[in-house]
Amino acid sequence: MFSVPRGLTLVVAAAAGLATLAPGPALGGTEIRPRVVSDVRAGRDAMTPHRPEQRDTTVEPAIAVNPTDRANAVTTYQEGRVATGGAEDNGFATTLDGGRTWRFGQLPGLTVAVGGPWDRASDPSVAFGPEGNVYASSLVFDEGSATAPSGVAVNVSTDGGRTWSAPTYPDDQPTDNGDDKEWIVVDQSAALGHHQGRVYVVWDRPAAGVLVGYSDDQGATWSAPSTVSTRFGIGAIPLVMPNGDLGVVFESFGALDAAARARAPEAEAGFGAGAGIRMVIAVAPGAGSVATGDALSFDSPHRIGAYLGNTIRQQRGGGLPTAAVDPATGRIYVGWEDGRFRTDRVNDAVITWSNDEGATWRRVKPVNPGPRGNWVDHYNIAIAVGDDGSLRVVELVRREAPRIRNASPYVDVIYQQSLDHGKTFSAPLRIDVERRADIRFAAVADGNAFFGDYEQLAVAGSRTYVVTCRAYRMHHGERATIPATIHHQRTWVTVLRGG
What we know:
Neuraminidase; 5-stranded antiparallel beta sheet
């Protein structure tokens, strides 16, 4: 366990890429003092690998906190990564003491490795319901042919993540449907316009666009899928609004409009002639009032902003949005990594927000301070909003260089927060104080180091849980290579207080 001295923050020194202690800044006359209270390994790959699974790898973690017990949190992750996609199974880890200790295992009934029907599991996500039930969603699929089936599965725990049910399926088809990147949320509110306890799962399918299904019986059965948008997209995130509407943020592909090209014409070239990537949101008005079994109806998507990110070198990472909604005001925050403010070839963590359910958006702004040409890359952004309206941000950070051979192999986890609704942010705080990630021992996907397409944080009052997967040397003499040939990558959870 590690604790930063009171009144100090651990910041990244941009010029040197090293950690140093510095006084915390003040916002509005109140000193911001987020501090690390624990940084522990929560889960690991305990399964026996079978080729082509990579031994001792966990990837792509998500986390949620029990609204009835803030000391109870659950994280999910891929376990036994396969370079071409998916994993031997999806795993979980559970804490009942505020993140000090964790118990971990595999989600049952998904893959053949744990008695299920599927070859691979991937893309885990997790959410608690208002009564304390916890729902873990997974992408599942078979290997081997163009017609291999895929689907979306949900396991349920009624004891805070200690034990899990067999999966049920928001989507399960016998032929290949290309399901990808599912995400889960539960309606927590009993207010007018809500359906308290309704579980929403979203996913994308190339031939159909972005889809959503829901359950009103705690995951036992699921509605038929409704269409969020017919345009091709990925990385969908469902958000329950304070009035019970359902918003879905996702990344859409297509030509950038003239205004976006004028703002950053050099960035569009990276996506090919005339092609572009943008963040969008579609809203289903009155979603919480829809009768059980009826379809949800979404308005046409609104444009949030262009994705102008630079490639994350030597890693498969970045490219997906992160999103959260203020439960009191309904302000929607969306973030991603972006190179529009840079003078080098890396990224900033950027955010924007909307106060009218996505109809209009504030100009994109960076979260991390400058300089903008120091070759420090910020990517895999994750955001969350507390009940008090505080905005909390985590990102991966690596010091690069014009020649990649001079880049640092280490990837750090950086935390910032805003108590004034995104106007100003606390100093960057390095929170991976017990273990730094080293890409030379990381899981490999598409020939590059792979910590996951996302990580996540969850808020419980003044406490913030941050989950990441970190690779590192375990034994003296193990050879460090890029890409890694020896893998040790495990799931870590950092708990912070303050703000």
